[in-house]
Design goal:
By secondary structure, the chain is of the alpha/beta class. It folds into two domains: 178 residues, 2-enoyl-CoA Hydratase, Chain A, domain 1 (Alpha-Beta Complex), CATH 3.90.226.10; 47 residues. Helices cover 51% and strands 15% of the residues. The protein has nine helices and eight strands. The strands form two sheets. Strands 1-2-3-5-8 form a five-stranded parallel beta sheet, with helices on both faces. Helix 1 links the parallel strand 1 and strand 2. Helix 1 runs parallel beside helix 2 and helix 3 runs parallel beside helix 4. The chain starts with 9 loop residues before the first strand and ends with a helix.
């Protein structure tokens, strides 16, 4: 669906049971949502609604009794999601399983209700997912060490302190609408390519990174030149009727 109060974007909403163990349905639904974003005729935004519970049941220990194959497919879905050809936003509320850290660390914009929290583990040890790598490379080794070695629960305040969430709000719908409205002056279509440069830049040497950035600069210069030509043509079209009247 598109939102008339926000820039011209296609909105894809996905509700996720954030208190459940890992399951095949989660992977299929996330993959389908990514497909819808990338198949949209206009720039699209995937909005995740991570809905936890007041208290996690014992069965919610992430990832649960699953096969390594299922874990591998989840990690592949995460990899695809963080490189999505579209923007993404997550809203998290109430107590959620550790798997939601994967999503929060891979999404473009993170918002949380004051009630939000993530159960890192239930007294054994943190699940060794790729969330560990994402947090250490994006938020720092110190934050990752503290969370994955010593903390069992991340409350909303702690997630905001670490940078796991960007904004805390009592009004999720209003916060999401305000963020979408803030995109009005932004060329949303090019943002995924900028994100990719950020993702890959940290893993590459300077020599590798500079080549990618120069290629991106070349594409951007061509895009701006084309836009300037189009604007000039449009201005000429507007001036023509006035010239005919004055004649």
């Amino acid at each position: 669906m598109s939102d008339p109060s926000s820039p011209l974007v296609h909105l894809v909403h996905l509700d996720i049971d954030a208190a459940s163990a890992l399951n095949d349905a989660q992977i299929q639904r996330l993959t389908a949502a990514c497909d819808e974003v990338e198949d949209a005729a206009i720039p699209a935004v995937l909005i995740l609604h991570l809905r936890g519970t007041a208290k996690l049941p014992a069965s919610a220990c992430w990832p649960g009794a699953v096969s390594l194959d299922l874990v591998n497919r989840w990690e592949k879905a995460m990899r695809r999601f963080e490189r999505l050809q579209g923007l993404s936003l997550a809203w998290i509320e109430n107590t959620c399983s550790a798997g939601m850290l994967d999503l929060l660390l891979a999404v473009d914009q993170r918002m949380a209700a004051p009630t939000a929290s993530v159960c890192v583990h239930n007294g054994e040890a943190a699940w060794p997912s790729m969330a560990m790598r994402r947090m250490s490379t994006r938020l720092g080794m110190g934050a990752a060490r503290a969370v994955f070695l010593f903390e069992t629960q991340l409350c909303c305040t702690r997630m905001a302190q670490l940078g796991v969430v960007d904004q805390v709000s009592d009004d999720g719908q209003g916060a999401i609408a305000a963020w979408l409205a803030s995109l009005a002056g932004v060329d949303v279509q090019v943002l995924p390519s900028r994100r990719l440069l950020l993702l890959e830049g940290a893993a590459h040497s300077y020599e590798q990174a500079v080549g990618q950035h120069l290629a991106a600069c070349d594409v951007e210069l061509r895009r701006r030149q084309l836009r300037a030509v189009q604007h000039a043509a449009a201005d000429c079209g507007h001036d023509a009727p006035a010239q005919m009247v004055s004649a």
